[in-house]
Write a structure and sequence with these properties.
Helices cover 42% and strands 13% of the residues. By secondary structure, it is an alpha/beta fold. It folds into two domains: 91 residues; 314 residues, Rossmann fold (3-Layer(aba) Sandwich), CATH 3.40.50.1820.
Length: 409
C-alpha cells in the first residue's frame, strides 16, 4: 500500500470518528460499543484529534501523498474532519451556558473562567497538591459474589482535613453496566474538584459485580458503604450526618436508587437501623427505569441483558424486584434534591430516559429538581478533563454547595 492509499484509509477512519461526534446514533446492535468508544473519545478530546489530523496530513504530504488523486481526496477528508471536530468542540464550550440555564431556577450560577483548551494536554491527570487519596479501605466483609476487592472504598479528601472537621461528604458510585468498573477510574474530576476547591470529603466505593453478583447485591453493598461512612468518616474529617451521592451510568442508577430508597430494610440486611438518608443526589447519565415502561429504548432494550446477567430473572418472573430496583418507581414527595445530568448524544442511555425521570421528579417531589442536558455529550463524557466535563463538574459543585448551605441554615 503506497502513501496516498494509506493516507486515504486513515483519513476515512478519522472522518468517520469525527462524524460520529455530531450524530445522535442509536439502535446499532453489535456496533454500539465501538461506535460509542470512537464518538466518546473523539468528541471529548476534539483538540487532541485536531492535532492528530494535522500532524498526519503534514506527514503524508511530506511523503508525497498528494502526487496521486487518492492523496488529494484524503486531504479533503482531513479538512472535513477538522471542521466536524471544531463543531464538536464548540458544543462542549457551550456547556457553561447550558449549566447556567439549568441552575438558574434554583438561583444558582457557575464560574465562566474555564479555558477553551481545558484538559489539554493533561486530560487524564487528576493529581492535585490540595488532595490526598486513602485507598482500599474495607467497609465490610467480603460477601458471596465478590470477585475480589469489591468490599473496598477510597477516601478522597483535602490534604488539610483532620478528624473532627465535619466536612460534607460525597459518595461516588462507579458505572460499568453493573458488570465491570472500579472505584479508581470514574468520578475523578468531580471528586478532585470538590475536595480541592470546596473542602469536601469524597468516598469512592466498589460493589459486587454481575454475573457473580445478583440484584440487589449491588445496592446492598452501596448501603454497606453508607453505613461505614456513618460510623467512620469522622476519622477522615467528614460529617457522617451530611452525605450526598453521585455516580455515572450504572453508578447513576445506583446513586438515584440510593437517594430514593432510604432505610429500606431489604437493601440493609443486618444493618436496618442505619439511617441511609442522603442530602442530595447528582446522577450522571443513569438508567432510571430498568423495565423501560415508556417504551423509549425499543429494539435497544436492556431487558435481555439485565435478565440474564444481573437479575437472573425476567420481569414476569420477579416483577416486584424489577420494580424495586428501578428508581423511577420510587419517586415520591419526600425525594431529596436532585440534579440530573445527561448528554443528548448518549448512545448507551438515551436522553429521553433522563427526561422522563426528571418529569416524574418534578411532578411528585417537594425538593428542588434541576436538569442539565448537555448538547452533543456522549456517555461518560465527564470521566476526564475537557471543557464540557469542567462545566458539568462546576454545575454539580454549585448544586451540592446549595444543599450544604440548606443543611446548615
Amino acid at each position: 500500500m503506497n502513501a496516498s492509499t494509506l493516507y486515504l484509509v486513515l483519513a476515512a477512519l478519522g472522518f468517520g470518528a469525527a462524524l460520529s461526534t455530531n450524530l445522535q446514533a442509536r439502535h446499532l446492535g453489535p456496533f454500539v460499543a465501538p461506535y460509542w468508544l470512537f464518538a466518546w473519545l473523539t468528541g471529548e478530546l476534539a483538540p487532541h484529534a485536531i492535532v492528530a489530523h494535522t500532524l498526519m496530513a503534514i506527514a503524508f504530504i511530506t511523503a508525497g501523498a498528494l502526487d496521486e488523486r487518492t492523496g488529494v481526496a484524503a486531504l479533503f477528508l482531513t479538512f472535513a474532519s477538522i471542521a466536524l471536530l471544531v463543531r464538536a468542540h464548540l458544543r462542549g464550550l457551550r456547556g457553561g451556558a447550558e449549566a447556567r440555564l439549568a441552575l438558574a431556577p434554583l438561583g444558582l450560577s457557575t464560574r465562566d473562567d474555564i479555558s477553551s483548551l481545558h484538559g489539554f494536554p493533561r486530560a487524564f491527570d487528576f493529581s492535585n497538591t490540595k488532595v490526598e487519596r486513602v485507598t482500599s479501605i474495607a467497609y465490610g466483609d467480603s460477601l458471596p459474589g465478590d470477585k475480589g476487592g469489591r468490599n473496598l472504598l477510597d477516601v478522597v479528601r483535602p490534604t488539610v482535613a483532620k478528624p473532627g472537621d465535619k466536612r460534607p461528604v460525597l459518595l461516588q458510585i462507579h458505572g460499568g453496566a453493573w458488570i465491570v468498573g472500579d472505584k479508581s477510574n470514574q468520578g475523578q474530576p468531580l471528586m478532585t474538584h470538590m475536595a480541592a476547591e470546596h473542602g469536601w470529603v469524597c468516598v469512592a466505593v466498589n460493589y459486587r459485580l454481575s454475573p457473580r453478583g445478583t440484584f440487589p447485591d449491588h445496592i446492598v453493598d452501596v448501603k454497606r458503604a453508607f453505613a461505614w461512612i456513618r460510623a467512620h468518616i469522622g476519622e477522615y474529617g467528614g460529617n457522617p450526618d451530611f452525605v450526598c451521592v453521585t455516580g455515572g451510568s450504572a453508578g447513576g442508577h445506583l446513586a438515584a436508587l440510593t437517594a430514593l430508597s432510604a432505610n429500606e430494610p431489604r437493601f440493609q440486611p443486618g444493618f436496618e437501623h442505619v439511617d441511609t438518608t442522603v442530602a442530595a443526589a447528582v446522577p450522571f447519565y443513569g438508567v432510571y427505569d430498568l423495565s423501560d415502561r415508556a417504551g423509549i429504548r425499543g429494539s435497544a432494550s436492556m431487558t435481555p441483558f439485565l435478565a440474564k446477567q444481573v437479575f437472573k430473572s425476567t420481569p414476569d418472573e420477579e416483577p416486584a424486584l424489577w420494580d424495586a430496583m428501578s428508581p423511577i418507581t420510587r419517586v415520591n414527595e419526600s425525594a431529596p434534591p436532585f440534579l440530573v445530568i445527561q448528554g443528548t448524544h448518549d448512545t448507551l442511555v438515551f436522553v429521553e430516559e433522563a427526561r422522563e425521570f426528571v418529569r416524574s421528579l418534578r411532578e411528585k417531589s417537594r425538593a428542588s429538581v434541576a436538569y442539565l442536558e448537555m448538547v452533543g455529550a456522549q456517555h461518560a463524557f465527564d470521566m476526564f478533563h475537557s471543557p464540557r466535563s469542567a462545566h458539568a463538574v462546576r454545575a454539580a459543585a454549585a448544586f451540592l454547595e446549595q444543599a450544604r448551605a440548606g443543611q446548615s441554615s
